Amino acid sequence: MLYSLHELHRSLTAPFVAWAEVSRHILSHPHSPLAYTPVSRHAAAGHELFARLLRTYEKPAWRIDYAHIGGKQVVVKIESVLRRPFCELVHFKKDMKNPGPRLLVFAPLSGHYATLLRDTVRAALQDFDVYITDWTDARMVPLREGSFHLDDYIDYCQAFMRHVGPGLKIMSVCQPTVPVLVAASLLAQDKDACLPQAMVMMGGPIDASRSPTKVNELATQRSHDWFETNVIHRVPWRYAGHGRKVYPGFLQHWGFLSMNADRHVEAHRKFFNHLIVGDGDSADAHRRFYDEYNAVLDMPAEYYLDTIRTVFQEFALARGTMRVRGRLVEPAAIRDCALFTIEGELDDISGNGQTEAAHGLCTGIPAKHRRHLSVQGVGHYGIFSGRKFRETIYPEIRDFLVRA
Asked: CA separation (Å) from 262 to 212, 218, 251, 252, 256?
């Protein structure tokens, strides 16, 4: 019912959003006489802010057409190389003979689209042949494709590693650190040649019991049944996946906003002022960030509930009790693979020590091939995007992967 009410609200507000967009153009276009009235900037700013608060944000484009390598622009072609019902493997193919070592980036399935890692991909393209997991909005997956559990996610991780092939290096950001480490453990237990040469794990809940954040506390304070009853809804009829049980993107978005409500209110206040004074650069930066931040997808209910129970309530991987299709997961089996963990000092989603816990599990990796980096003054999103990532964190990742 809640999902249907959300869709009704979306339909009812759509005409007002369109009206606000048109009014903004009339009040700000240089060829419009109304753009030169005393109140035109205030009115245009108000209409744009109103429209942005109510509009629906679709999946953003990658906007990666070139890679900057050695002072030159190299054409990049984005192509899907492996499709699964809930995800596709995307390759950023560079127009050059030697694109560099293969790097498989595992994007999170936790509300936002893979394009949230645009900065990560752009930086990596300077040195690597980049692949990324591009997750599908679950409301667009027909029921006939079946359910999608955490075990299926782990199967996908192994399939993608095998597709890219032996000798690859991998990077997992936030949520996928757990299934990726599990997948690598199973490959090692099978002595599979596609075990990665090196793993970079950034801001993920390997052991969510360490330095618990608000996200972790919510998971432990509520029962598994509470999550199933209160956050799981069926997709309405208008979508290809109608009838599928999901954790809706709009509920996740409300959760994201509520965690730092004051910060978001202040950001929108500044945006309004930037529009009034004509600070176009600052206004554009706000638009780019929130075009991405406000674009959310639905997650399959089975996967979400499995993750809540296994990762955030039972801490199964950290406690050595995790099983995949009945098989015990043994991270200590990983040997011929380097490990680099990265955390942000101010991360309010994955607390300090949660990602570093991977080193205590991967005891088969020699100490000389393991490294941990705690970045001062950086929050969750800062460890994979923004200036500090590009100037400080990425060079550390590049150097580690090149040496591995």
From this structure: 22, 20, 19, 18, 12
Tens of pLDDT along 152-208? 999 999 999 999 999 999 999 999 999 999 999 999 999 999 999 999 999 999 999
| 338 touches 198 (CB < 8 A) | yes
Find the largest Cα–Cα distance for the chain: 72
Compute how many other C-beta atoms are within 10 angstroms of the C-beta atom of residue 79: 10
Residues 382, 389 contacting (CB under 8 angstroms): yes
CB-CB contact of 58 with 113 (8 Å):
no
Beta strand segments in 190-345, E: 198-202, 233-234, 245-247, 299-300, 323-324, 327-328, 338-344
Segments in 81-172 forming alpha helices (H): 118-124, 150-164
Structure tokens at 253: 């978005």
Distances (CA, A) of 103 to 8, 99, 100, 346: 43, 11, 9, 27
R_g of the chain, CA atoms, integer Å: 22
Place of tokens 């906007």: 63
The rounded Cα 347 to chain-centroid distance in angstroms is 15
Lookup: tokens for 252: 């996740």
8 Å CB contact between 125 and 150: no
> Could you tell me how far CA 310 lies from the centroid of its own chain?
20
Question: Closest Cα to residue 102, out of 6, 198, 202, 33?
Answer: 198
C-alpha to C-alpha distance for 365 and 172, rounded to whole angstroms:
18
The H or E element that residue 180 is part of is: helix 177-189
Read off the DSSP letter of residue 327: E
Quick check: 167 and 102 in contact, CB under 8 A?
Answer: yes
Q: How far is CA 104 from CA 64, 82, 180, 240, 283, in A?
A: 17, 13, 11, 29, 33
| pTM for the predicted model, two decimal places | 0.94
